[in-house]
Specification:
Largest interface: A-B, 81 and 55 residues
CATH superfamily of the largest domain in chain A: 2-enoyl-CoA Hydratase, Chain A, domain 1
Structural class of chain A: alpha+beta
Number of domains of chain B: 1
Oligomer: heterodimer
Number of helices of chain B: 2
Structural class of chain B: alpha+beta
Radius of gyration of chain A: 27 Å
Distance between the termini of chain B: 53 Å
Strand content of chain A: 15-25%
Largest sheet of chain A: 7 strands, antiparallel
Distance between the termini of chain A: 95 Å
Number of strands of chain A: 28
């Protein structure tokens, strides 16, 4: 009897094991569940954080001991106000602060410059603001200008590449408080901004929105609502003054628009050269095909010089910057070279602390990385094989755009900068979601093949009046809203063309980003609304 | 009873698995563009991305079978710019047909979703 029972027990155990194995095999064969691992991995904090100076705290993990950090995962999703339908659990604001404290200690690029403060003494938004360095750059600006948070549901919203809602115009705000000046910087073709009623073009000044005076009006809410409609289908009334002085009124309805990240590709023939020009506004996926088409066209034209207009390009996918840099320099100058190497803090010399992947330098990509729907992954990229390039810049030239300049400088391609000082962002981060808020804290720095990446004050043309940024050969030239982008008479392009012929610059007229925020007179540079002032909830401010 | 439960479980799992096994998929284009098909595509992509808000062009899948999705475009001051230095890649989906159904497939994971209100034709 005992033997029979034992036999049955063994048999049941075997059946159970077999069942588990079979179910596991089926699930494995199915390849897991739904969802998109790539999208999630970039949005979610890796909880496998092991701070180098972690210490067990036996009783209360919320108890603050200066210099002692539990893993961020200890506190993750423990929220004062858990978000329904998520993995959030009830916690306290101290838990949220402790998450940020540990996360920062583990991943912040300058973690050893954070003053360790008691997380029980500060509201979470205030505490996050304190989790950064207070160091300043040689210009006197804060070293960390990119420390911010967002509601997670806003951050994770997705769109088809190049698709957004709005009018299809970018507005440069020359002054955000009265007397304001708002000028159209560029438009996207085939959008409400370029349709017959509006027919907006660069340089048009917006005078009224829904009856409110843009220049002196006190109703900033109406102005913002008109400039930045919350939804598709909103109609607002505008009065503008075109470049020719004509004042006219029209209504414009927000729509789903398709941006054109690469525009105005053309060849300009000068007495000494065939000069290629392209306007590159966004490192988004659809830019891949735009850049390939542009370089193919310019190569067929037999250009001998190239001007890339990055003045409004705030960055994006770093691999697209690498592709463009390759297409400029060609295989001969880039083979085996590093475009950009990403460096985390000294706790992570080998592995990316967020993804766990081994850190490897980004090369100059000679083949398509598969961003755009119309370009097959692995397609050999065209190239211009140039040994120098002119880059038109402004304070909106940021991050991956600066990487193009720095990456090429790293392999001794001559980069000549025409315009104003760039934004100064050799840094990057991975977003960290916790308790309905997404946090951004600088985690890595990009350096070029020479190991250089110290340009927190941006790149400045060599003849800039005050030495603010890292100096690069070229000319300080203010933005010129009186001519279309790509028009040879536009001041920055004209200066580039002149420099090619004569090696000389006009009198310096560009500005550095820090000055833009101080000046009350009409500067020759501007603030591009959606790029440079993202930390503000409102662009147009009421008067003092 | 346990045997019945086990057989039922295996049947369910086999059925679920059938949807992710390799079939003869042909790239396809949308042949009935309109609000109904657009809404179903949008809902499907949102589901694939764990329910996030997704904005699509009105002509999605009418000119190309591949759909590239990335973080929402920053076209207003009330939102920050893109990462600036983004080390990631966008998500890619493709509209395909197996001859009887129109299906959206996640190119990376091969997980796919049959569509009920979408009609499609082979992409030339």
């Amino acid at each position: 009897m005992i033997n029979q029972n034992s036999f049955l027990l063994v048999l049941k155990s075997l059946k159970l094991i077999l069942s588990v194995v079979l179910v596991s095999m089926v699930l494995t064969a199915c390849g897991g569940g739904g969802g998109n691992p790539t999208a999630l991995s970039s949005n979610n904090l890796n909880t496998n954080n092991n701070s180098s100076n972690n210490t067990n705290i036996d009783d209360d993990p919320d108890e603050w001991v200066e210099g002692i950090f539990l893993p961020a995962s200890t506190f993750r999703n423990m929220c004062e106000s858990p978000v329904a339908g998520t993995s959030d659990v009830q916690g306290t604001f101290v838990d949220e602060n402790n998450f940020l404290r540990s996360h920062s200690n583990h991943t912040y690029l300058w973690y050893d410059e954070i003053v360790d403060r008691d997380p029980g003494l500060h509201a979470t938004p205030d505490y996050f603001d304190l989790l950064k360095t207070d160091a300043v750059t040689p210009s006197g600006s804060f070293k960390d200008n990119f420390h911010f948070s967002l509601p997670t549901d806003e951050w994770i919203a997705q769109s088809q590449s190049g698709i957004s809602s709005g009018y299809g115009m970018q507005v440069a705000l020359i002054s955000s408080s009265p007397p304001r000046q708002a000028v159209v910087a560029f438009t996207d073709p085939g959008t409400p901004a370029t349709q017959a009623d509006a027919n907006l073009a660069r340089g048009a000044e917006i005078l009224t929105i829904d009856g409110v005076d843009v220049i002196f009006g006190a109703d900033a809410d109406t102005l913002n609502a008109g400039l930045f409609p919350d939804s598709v289908g909103e109609t607002h009334n505008f009065t503008v003054r075109d470049l020719n002085g004509t004042v006219r009124s029209f209504s414009m309805t927000s729509a789903v628009i398709t941006s054109t990240p690469v525009q105005n590709v053309k060849t300009i023939t000068t007495p000494g050269a065939k000069v290629g020009y392209l306007l590159f506004n966004d490192h988004i996926a659809t830019a891949e095909s735009g850049l390939i088409d542009a370089v193919t066209q310019l190569s067929a034209d037999g250009i001998t010089e190239l001007v890339i207009d990055l003045r409004y390009n705030g960055g994006g996918f770093l691999d697209i910057a690498s592709e463009l840099a390759y297409m400029i320099a060609g295989a001969g100058q880039t083979a085996g070279e590093t475009f950009e190497e990403v460096k985390f803090n000294d706790k992570h010399p080998v592995f990316n602390p967020i993804t766990g992947q081994t850190l490897t330098p980004v090369p100059f990509h000679s083949r398509s990385q598969g961003f755009d729907a119309t370009v097959a992954t692995g397609t050999l990229l065209p190239s211009l094989n140039l040994s120098r390039v002119y880059v038109l810049t402004g304070s909106g030239t940021c991050s991956a755009s600066e990487s193009i300049m720095n990456g090429l400088l790293g392999i001794d391609v001559e980069v000549i900068q025409i315009g104003s000082t760039t934004c100064g962002k050799p840094y990057g981060f991975f977003a960290a979601n916790n308790c309905g808020t997404t946090y951004f804290t600088i985690q890595f720095q990009g350096v070029n093949a020479k190991g250089f990446g110290d340009y927190p004050d941006g790149f400045s043309p060599a003849n800039t009046v005050s030495d603010v940024g890292e100096l690069v050969s070229g000319c300080s030239v203010g933005d010129d809203f009186t001519a279309a982008l790509g028009n040879p008479v536009e001041a920055r392009l004209a200066a580039a063309l002149n420099h090619m012929d004569t090696g000389t610059c006009p009198a310096p007229s560009g500005l550095f980003a820090p000055e833009l925020l101080k000046t009350s007179s009409l500067p020759s540079d501007y603030m591009l609304l959606n790029k440079s002032l993202w930390q503000q909830n409102r662009i147009i401010r009421e008067g003092p | 009873m346990r045997q019945i439960i086990f057989i039922l479980l295996m049947t369910i799992l086999s059925t679920a698995c059938r949807e992710t096994q390799v079939e003869e998929f042909i790239p396809a284009l949308l042949s009935n563009p309109g609000q109904e098909s657009h809404a179903e595509i949008q809902q499907t992509i949102s589901t694939a991305l764990n329910g996030v808000t997704v904005m699509l062009a009105d002509d999605v899948f009418t000119m190309n079978s591949v759909l590239v999705i990335e973080r929402g475009m920053q076209r207003g001051i009330d939102r920050p710019p893109e990462m600036g230095r983004d080390l990631g890649r966008p998500s890619r989906f493709q509209l395909v047909t197996n001859g009887t159904e129109c299906i959206i497939i996640d190119e990376q994971s091969s997980v796919h979703w049959p569509l009920a209100r979408v009609k499609c034709i082979k992409e030339e």
